[in-house]
# Entry
Amino acid sequence: MTDKTFGSKIDGITYMERKGAYLIAVCNDKLATVRTPKGYFLLGGGIEGNETHIECIRRECLEESGYAVTVGQYICSADTYKLHYRFGYFHPIQYYYQGEILDKIAEPIEVDHVFEWLPLEDIDSKMYVEQQIWAVKYYIKNHLYHGK
# Structure
């Protein structure tokens, strides 16, 4: 069960399901993101094989940004039912964790991803995924982030 569902499931439609894990790292009122040609995203991505959520986040952060991270407490989850331009009927399920950005230890391997600290006031206008915007706001609203 997820904390928030976006979109509506259409009866009789088979959806491609994709589980992913993502890091919400906030420092000095800025959110750790990756900027791509589409917009800004949380660091993280799809879970591969028998990976745990934490293993997925660590791997994805390194691939996307080159940074090592610490992964802390679980925050929430959200899913979406939508028609995706590439996957067709798509059901991403995303799990969000609090964490911190540590040292840059490698060059990112995803060349169209650029690590960037996004001011919190810009998340509505610049982030690409509605459920990720919701998760960041949930994190802030529930006093998990105290503005440091």
